[in-house]
């Protein structure tokens, strides 16, 4: 099976195993509750990601790709793919030179969105590893969102109690806008995940000083 087809499956499996591992490591006393909600929340995101991917990249692919829904996800994917293809030709793309370098050709001789972001470069790295399949990016956002919800539980448990953490994680898993923005290949789920890891590592280090949790905030 080609890697670009296998990649979304591997990403989803990684998300499942990573979540279960984190629950076992840091919340084993609430393993059954968290496992059920984590698998449900992740499964819902994976399903909606596939649905939005199909609508944006398959159903509308020949006419108006990505235009049925907010089109940022489509732009990130296409710009990431173009950066990847340019890199294969040894043409470096930076935020500064994409408008002025004549060797860099996007649609209309500039980036599709008129701008290049760090997430475009992240998408290009994903494509350079797994080859072109936007579903991989969709699933990465879904996994990041589900893991971020877990860290909301960890943070709430450190600050308050297990019961408060349970309520917080239910909201985090099933808040409609969080689900929406984590299933359309957007950068927000990863940003929220990194912020949640940062906050949790700061709170956790108070109880369990460790070089690992000194490194995480610095990153």
Topology:
Layout: H1 3-26, H2 31-59, H3 72-88, H4 118-130, H5 134-159, H6 162-174, H7 176-181, H8 188-207, H9 211-218
Characterize the structure shown.
- With 219 residues, this protein is mainly α.
- It has one domain.
- It has 9 helices and no strands.
- It has helices spanning 3-26, 31-59, 72-88, 118-130, 134-159, 162-174, 176-181, 188-207, 211-218.
- Helix 8 (188-207) packs antiparallel against helix 9 (211-218).
- The longest helix has 29 residues, at 31-59.
Keywords:
219 residues; mainly alpha; 9 helices; 71% helix; globular
Helix content: over 70%
- Report low-confidence residues grouped into runs of 5 or more: none
Please report which band the strand proportion falls in: under 5%, 5-15%, 15-25%, 25-35%, 35-45% or over 45%: under 5%
Number of discrete helical segments: 9
Main β-sheet, in a few words? none
SSE ordering? HHHHHHHHH
Q: Give the domain tally.
A: 1
Mean pLDDT: 84
- Give the strand tally: 0
Structural class: mainly alpha
Rg (CA only): 19 Å
Quick synopsis:
With 219 residues, this protein is mainly alpha-helical. The protein has helices at 3-26, 31-59, 72-88, 118-130, 134-159, 162-174, 176-181, 188-207, 211-218. It is globular.
């Amino acid at each position: 099976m080609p890697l670009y087809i296998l990649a979304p499956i591997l990403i989803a499996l990684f998300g499942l195993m990573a979540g279960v591992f984190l629950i076992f490591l840091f919340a084993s006393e609430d393993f059954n509750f968290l496992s059920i909600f984590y698998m449900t929340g992740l499964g819902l995101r994976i399903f909606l990601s596939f649905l939005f991917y199909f609508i944006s990249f398959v159903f509308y692919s020949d006419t108006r790709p990505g235009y049925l829904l907010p089109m940022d996800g489509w732009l990130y994917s296409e710009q990431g793919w173009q950066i990847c293809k340019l890199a294969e030709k040894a043409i470096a793309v930076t935020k500064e030179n994409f408008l002025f370098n004549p060797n860099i050709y996007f649609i209309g001789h500039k980036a599709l969105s008129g701008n290049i972001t760090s997430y475009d470069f992240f998408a290009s790295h994903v494509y350079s590893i797994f080859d072109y399949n936007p579903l991989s990016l969709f699933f990465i956002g879904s996994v990041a969102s589900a893991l971020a919800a877990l860290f909301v539980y960890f943070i709430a448990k450190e600050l308050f109690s297990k019961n408060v953490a349970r309520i917080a994680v239910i909201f985090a898993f099933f808040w409609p806008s969080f689900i929406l923005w984590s299933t359309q290949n957007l950068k927000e789920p990863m940003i929220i995940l990194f912020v949640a890891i940062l906050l949790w590592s700061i709170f956790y280090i108070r109880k369990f000083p460790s070089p690992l949790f000194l490194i995480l905030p610095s990153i």
